[in-house]
Amino acid sequence: MSGRIVSPTERNVGIIDLGSNSLRLLIVRIHADGSTTVLNQVKHMVRLGEGGFVHNRLQEEAMSRTIGVLRGLAEMCAVYETAQIVAIATAAVRDADNAQEFILRVRERTGIDFTVVSGKEEARLIYLGVSSGLERSDKLRLFIDIGGGSTELIVGNSQGYSNLDSVKLGCVRLTNLFFGDGREPVSPREYASLQAHIRNVALHSFQRIADFDIVEAVASSGTAQNLAEIAAVREDADAAREGRASRASRHVLSYDALIRTVRELCARTAEERRSIPGINPARADVLIAGAAILQTVMEEQGFESVVVSNRNLQNGILVDYLMRTSPGNEGGLPSREESVLQLARFCRFEEKHAFHVARLALELFDSARAQGLNAAAPASRELLFYAALLHDIGIFISFTNHNAHSHYLIRNTELLGFTDREIEFMAALAFFHRKRASRKQPIFLQLDEEIRDDVRRVSLFLNLAERMDKSHRQIVRAARFVQTPDGNLELHMLVSGDCPIEIEEVERGGKLIRKVYDMRCAVRVYREQSEFDRIGTSQRTGGISHV
């Protein structure tokens, strides 16, 4: 069930994306302020386009299989009392001569009414979904989404798109056309023939794209994700065998890693491919065709790597729905801070405490950077602020282990405007506001290798800031790190009254400081602003304790 009765100001909405390969359902609760909470999400590989692209007709077996799954999804939507189901069908249906017959059968047997979108509309929705999860940039990106029946190629930046293309190239379509059931090894000659076909079909799209000054390519499909996973698992294994640190990343796929993966896939039968470490066995028969599309695009446009995103058409359908229906939205989307505050207020956070902790955490971040102690990326500062606002939202579920609940809520809520890695970073900071970030913690080990060091450094500031407002009285007014002329480290706190709880908490946090900076730290407490500002003088009005 949905967990609680939906209030009159809220509504649950089901979003269904029916592709040529996969069928996805996303159930979200939309709150009065336009924020959303994901209630459930499922995916089935129904292969609706299987055998249908040769004669432009959906096959009976594929239709029956898909309708069977749709009946189950309709029942799920009923359980969650969805006020509306937004259902979109793409290439397999729009290219089929019997599309209308299929749509009517679906409506009769499931009650779901599908809208069949054009290729350009599909590209627009993909752009909305994927771009909303990337860092904002005025520079142009190429968005590549390889589906079962079509590939969408979009040029755009964070402000909007400049070119929308949809070409009839998909992993299921090409597998059907070139490899039959896709179960046998693929020879170099067959693969070259496939690439020649891709170049021919996408020729005009490639020519249009070449006119733009594009700085980055983003691949958002399940194909790209699985290729990146295979490449990363292989790099992990190579590094372990050679006794070196792994350079693997699931977020970036290089051209060289793609070529190595393609060679391994082509040399095996589909059954043998299923045993390749990292592969999704359900993609074993169609992954080569998808890889050929990605490889050809990278070669034609000169990209040495692509960023891999797990956002997709479904996210774009949600963004488009919110833009059209949320009150007061006026066609726009929430800013990053607004998106964070929507989640925080939904979880009934203690606003005064959260903003005070956030301010103290930023003061510690800035002072550590000024002293040459903070090597974290500058972008981490903004994410620290948002994580501080959200660090206690887990109390909405339970105070016990609330840092773990905060971590879960941040990772599993649609925070618009953030990349997946940024969400992972903020969730980790929230988790470690009560613990030290170390390899002894499974959540730390699950982090992307590239952000672990920054999480370890930056979580210290949130941890200390939380200790400085343990009583929720905002009695610690300011804080900063200072290095004395003799090279010692001090933590200065300006207080407005007695705060034994906060001082004891900060002293207990001394071990964290030593672990991060490999040096001891003296805590100095001041009651007067003038004394707090007079760094380096011998006159002290507060007590001194060593931690």
Briefly, what is this?
The chain has 547 residues and is α/β, with parallel strands linked by helices. It is built from 22 helices and 15 strands.
Question: C-alpha Rg, in Å?
Answer: 27 Å
What is the helix tally? 22
- The secondary-structure class comes to alpha/beta
Low-pLDDT parts are 1-6, 329-333, 536-547
> Helicity range of the residues?
40-55%
Q: Assess the beta-strand content as a share of residues.
A: 15-25%
Largest sheet: 6 strands, mixed
Could you tell me the mean pLDDT?
Answer: 88
Outline type: globular
Counted beta strands: 15
The span between the termini is 50 Å
Strand order of the largest sheet: 8-7-6-9-11-10
Q: How does this structure look, described?
A:
A hairpin with a 4-residue loop joins strand 6 and strand 7. The chain has a 6-stranded mixed β-sheet with strand order 8-7-6-9-11-10, with helices on both faces. The protein has a 5-stranded mixed β-sheet with strand order 3-2-1-4-5, with helices on both faces. The protein has a 4-stranded mixed β-sheet with strand order 12-13-14-15. It contains 22 helices and 15 strands. It has 547 residues and is of the alpha/beta class. Mean pLDDT is 88; it is low at 1-6, 329-333 and 536-547.
